[in-house]
Amino acid sequence: MSAIFNHIGFYDHIYKFGCDVKYYQATLCNCIASNNGHPSPTCDCYYGYRYGIAPIEGKLQRTQVNLKGMPEQMAMMLQGGCQITVPKQTKTLDVNGNSVYTDCDIFHLANIGDVFVIKNRHRRDRDILQKGVRDYLHAFDVQEIYSITNGTITYIEGTDFEFVKKDAYWSIPVNDAEDDMDLIKNKLFFGGEIIWLSGGSAPATNEHYTVEFKSEYQYIIWDDLSKDRGGDDDDLPKRFTCRLRQYINFNINPLDSLTI
């Protein structure tokens, strides 16, 4: 006789001990179609993904990712990552304090490239930007800028630059060659934009610079483990292996250089 999954008990456990998260759904950017299946380095997307949909909030379970038996290069990439478990339903309480179980939208939507943001868990993060090419941060929910440097040069906020915090989803009108304002192009900025002030110091155009900032923990789905369970119970949760979302060259897959 096969074991029966206590799904109600699991939903209660998530409600009591789960992490509050914001889930950002990714869509593929069409730049990969014109660049032989790889993200275009001249595109403003996040390495082939765009996040233009309002986040979904919920409670999920975060546990440590198991690195045992993984190839060394893969394990190094997933260090600091986690395993996210998504229940099929979530528990809430009605006005009388009774438990109410509703379908979890994240359960049906989550896929590779999507991002989980752990609410109220902050860390110091960093990104490398390029003056005049990408002056905006890919990270969501940036709280503040710690420093902007270019080698030994440190730029001063308020004198050299300003940080304009923006949401993850917004669009701006862009004139085309014929100044037709009816055409709207979506340009997605994420945690915010660095505005270089006239009269202050700044990197040269096309020059790279490093930004250190404060944001909430952000994990991007690397692998879908939703089918690794030995059972066909429809109420089983889904699991996802996630790594910390950070500045990295996604055009190089560590699996390409493995020797088996």
Q: Which labels suit this protein?
A:
260 residues, mainly beta, 6-stranded antiparallel barrel, 9% helix, disordered C terminus
Written description of the protein model:
It is a single chain. Helices cover 9% and strands 39% of the residues. The chain is mainly beta and 260 residues long. It has one domain. The strands form five sheets. Strands 1-4-5-17-16-8 form a six-stranded antiparallel barrel. The two termini are 39 Å apart. The C terminus is likely disordered.
Largest sheet: 6 strands, antiparallel, barrel
Number of strands: 17
- The fraction of residues in strands falls at 35-45%
What overall form do the CA principal axes indicate?
A: elongated
How many domain regions? Answer: 1
Q: What structural category arises from helix and sheet content?
A: mainly beta
Count of DSSP H/I helices? 3
Task: Give the uncertain stretches in residue-range form.
Answer: 169-174, 179-185, 248-260
Q: Averaging pLDDT over every residue, what do you get? A: 80
> Can you list the strand order of the major beta sheet?
1-4-5-17-16-8
Approximately how much helix is present in the residues? under 10%
Q: End-to-end distance, in Å?
A: 39 Å
**Secondary-structure element string:** HEEEEHEEEHEEEEEEEEEE
Q: What kind of oligomer do you see?
A: single chain
Radius of gyration: 21 Å
